[in-house]
Specification:
By secondary structure, the protein is of the alpha+beta class. The relative contact order is 0.16.
Length: 122
């Protein structure tokens, strides 16, 4: 009987530890989202690997984003939330005449509850 109690206690502590680690990871991801606004949501239509190892994520709404630190490919129909942070005045003054505004905007994609830096691709 005591072995069952020890196993139950061990499993309870393991679950609690995993929940605390998950909450810590979520807080870290959310802190990286300061200044970003949700601009759209869609689902994954297709994922392809680019030349430098980055992944191109084609969304059902037609947007295509390049993500560099995505290890596992999201499955088709995976929900993706698109966040954007407009360029600062300094960036617009420096590059505004040579680059389109969407290339100056910072993007993050929330895929499977993890935030990834992304650039819009055409």
């Amino acid at each position: 009987m005591s072995q069952i109690r020890c196993l139950s206690l061990f499993l309870s502590l393991s679950v609690l530890s995993a929940q605390v680690a998950h909450a810590r990871d979520a807080a870290r991801d959310l802190s990286r989202m300061v200044g970003f606004t949700i601009i759209n949501a869609s689902t994954v239509k297709q994922v392809t690997v680019g030349g430098a190892g980055e992944k191109l994520i084609v969304l059902a709404n037609g947007n295509v984003f390049k993500v560099t630190l995505l290890l596992l490919d999201p499955l088709p129909l995976t929900e993706v939330v698109i966040f954007a942070k407009p360029p600062s005045k300094e960036i617009i003054e420096k590059f505004g005449d040579t680059l389109p505004k969407e290339l100056l905007t910072q993007y993050k994609l929330l895929i499977d509850n993890e935030a990834f830096d992304a650039t819009i691709s055409r």
